[in-house]
Amino acid sequence: MYRYDNFDARFVSERTNQFRDQIARRLKGELSEEQFRPLRLMNGVYLQLHAYMLRIAIPYGTLSGAQMHKLADIADRFDRSYGHFTTRQNIQLNWMGLSNIPDILEELASVEMHAIQTSGNCIRNVTTDPYAGAIAGEAEDPRAVAELIRQWSSLHPEFSFLPRKFKVAITASEGDRAAIKVHDVGLQLCENDAGEAGVRVWVGGGLGRTPLIASVIRDWLPLGDLLGYLEALMRVYNRHGRRDNKYKARIKILLQALGLEELTRQVDAEFAKIDHIDPDNVRSELDRIRAFFAPPPLEESADEGTLQSDLAENQAFARWIQNNSVDHKVPGHTIVTISLKPIGGIPGDATSDQMHLIANLATLYSHDEIRTTHEQNIVLPHVRKADLHHLYKALADAGLGTANAGLASDIIACPGLDYCSLATARSIPVAQNISKRLEARENDVGPLKIKISGCINACGHHHVGHIGILGLDKAGKEYYQITLGGSGDENASIGEILGPGFSYDKIDGAVETLVDTYQSIRTGDERFLDTYRRVGADPFKEALYATA
Amino acid sequence: MPLLKGGIIEDDSFLDLEDGASFPEGASVIVSWDRLRQDYALLAADTGRLGVRFPVDSDPATLTPFVSGLQVIALEFAAYTDGRAYSLARVIRTQLGFTGELRATGDVLADQVAFMRQVGFDAFEIRSDYQPLDIWQRTATAMSLTYQPDFVARQGFAPAEIFNKRRYAGS
């Protein structure tokens, strides 16, 4: 894992002091709320329906045990003893007092964490594959490049007042678990024909009101040029992105307006003029960072201990292994997903006790490494097969053993009307109802991604759900629109609206009807998404609306 | 309007000239971008020092023919959230090679001055009802380090460049 040097530590510490001063000036009335707003947002502080919310950055979703312990301590001392893991791999604390925040930031700095740029119209927390460095077939561990971008984008003087927020995701695999094609910029690490390390650059993906899949703006770029190229791209966006309408302000709209060819021409022309970033300097910095992401010392051991007999004796364990684990690149090891989607629970929430436990288990069983996922779960990336049963028992005892990773009840949901001032409908209880309704059959149903947003801003990523649900307000009543066929992976697609929406009482039943329909028409081991792509929307529409 | 420059607050020695208004010969004036293009020869001959209010939605490359005759380029922040002037300032300094005064006008707030200095602004029009000088100084120097290569103020306080320090001095 990356460790701060003296510069990083001083930077975060000065940033904390700066914000402490700003908060003091706000509380004294020297700054108006309007002047204070972007300052607090760039430090992760939102004003929600009931209280201030602090969104803490978990850069590229990587945490140590000590960092997770600290998050739990903060939730205990300053909040209501739980946290909410978000779709940008961050964590939110929902019940904050403004005057406590500088002390919290100081606590975070003590474990090399911060809340910088988790909000605001700036470059946000860079996200990546939660299996980074553990899964086979990567060009390299993408977290080194992610850390480089974290540093380069931190308090960027030119790009802190962009037309709108700017989200970057990175993957180094063919199989995309970072949803790079629905980001403002998606980076795919890959080699060129000569075997040199570089990156393919995607631009203009996004969800929200205008969901779009990204386009390739640069097929391959040497890594030494990455920061110069990003500066050029950001400058073109900063100068020409729309500022008259915040719903038309993302780079995807600029791409639509200019066309890919013209945007490419402008970015290339700007890039040609940038000569102050020495590629050797970038490469040397990247090499320095890479050393921190050296793989942990895993023994290639085929010794699985009593795994096979445990699997045979414990059905629940066997199901958990089947759904919540994938092979590690080193034989004898496994990448484990800890589901934060207990049946009927709140997606992405963890209590401080659970966070402490996860931290301890990571130290014991996963070389002290924890990942958060954009699907709002936790991953332990380096677990010996021989330790799996011990790990499972400890998790299950704490309510963390739900065997539903990738299944129907592994739902992404935004906070919705329960917390958010933008929401038009509740998301969390809809997820809870669907989860309870589908639990019993979800192993038969197989891989199914259900994603729920409580308003058109699409924080629950409904556009890329196999089944997407969008909560709206119609004449003072919540109703829910269904989209089908979305996907955020390497074959990304935007879901299509199926037809008229459903009321709060009817939406979980409607989802069950869709699942019934799928099960009746699937062939072989087709996933829900494959069936939809084969047969189209008609059979689903018929099942939902024919009798209505 | 008072001007924050070189760490002190001073009176503006330039006259902000309306379009069509005449000026005393030899005066220091700042004119609109339209007027500069129209009357450049006249202005260059008859004014003492010359500046322009350059619109932030214009292409900075169009400034090129005038750069050597300008002492001030003023960029307006219509709202402090409108970040276009940051990019323009950067381009004017690094690509047009402008070494005169780059002035931030409009909605200029103390907490943004550090960023403005990093992209090349060196003068700031400030409303007199804003914060006292010590707050402007404190906010401008709150961060002593920067990750961005070559984004440092040319004069006065400048944050140290982290990447360079690591490479050349070690950490």
Explain this structure to me?
The complex is a heterodimer of chains A (548) and B (171). With 548 residues, chain A is of the alpha+beta class. Helix content of chain A is 37%, strand content 18%. Chain A is built from 18 helices and 21 strands. In chain A, the strands form four sheets. In chain A, strands 16, 17, 18, 19, 20 and 21 form a six-stranded mixed β-sheet that branches. Chain A has a five-stranded antiparallel β-sheet with strand order 1-2-5-4-13. A five-stranded antiparallel β-sheet of chain A has the order 3-14-15-12-11. In chain A, 56% of the residues are buried. Chain B is an alpha/beta fold and 171 residues long. The longest helix of chain B is centred in the N-terminal third of the chain and has 14 residues. Chain B has one domain: TIM Barrel (Alpha-Beta Barrel), CATH 3.20.20. The mean pLDDT of chain B is 92. Chains A and B meet through helix 1, helix 2, helix 6 and helix 9 of A and helix 2, helix 3, helix 4, strand 9 and helix 5 of B.
